[in-house]
Amino acid sequence: MPVLIIDIQIGLLGLLFSTSQSAVNYAIIGSLIMGILALALVILNITFQVYLQQTVPTQLLGRVVATMTTVNSSIMPIGTLLFTIIFQNTHHGGLVLIVNSLLLIGYTLLLLKPLHQAIRTDQSSSI
């Protein structure tokens, strides 16, 4: 559920940038959207870290977390480069965020059923 909230918040941010011309609206509504986005990210990160600690054997936990951190840190510059190119070549930054949000929502909904099945399988095997 937090992933879907994050996807929607990105779309709302794009909608705000596409429709509003007021700096006050950017500040107030944008802060509210970013606050909800941050809260959803915190919930997602805590849930994922707890799941990792419960499922990964203790002797491998450090390696798994280090590998995930390395992979995540390695992917960030690629995303930054990609979105820098996209934002520099368009005058509709809000539209970029809206399209990105729609793609993320579609991807999330596509993976929702397999994710629920994996969670059910994991819960039934740990009982």
Explain what the structure shows.
- It is a single chain.
- By secondary structure, the protein is mainly α.
- It has helices at residues 2-19, 23-55, 58-88, 93-126.
- It is elongated, with a radius of gyration of 18 Å.
Question: What is this entry, summarized?
Answer:
By secondary structure, the chain is mainly α.
Describe this protein with a few key phrases.
mainly alpha, 4 helices
Overall shape = elongated
Estimate the helix proportion, in percent. over 70%
According to DSSP, the number of beta strands is 0
Q: Main beta sheet: strand number and arrangement? A: none
Structural class: mainly alpha
Number of helices: 4
Q: Which series of helices and strands comes N to C?
A: HHHH
**Poorly predicted runs:** none
Mean pLDDT: 90
- Rg from Cα: 18 Å
Q: Kindly estimate the percentage of residues that lie in beta strands according to DSSP.
A: under 5%
Separation of the first and last Cα atoms: 24 Å
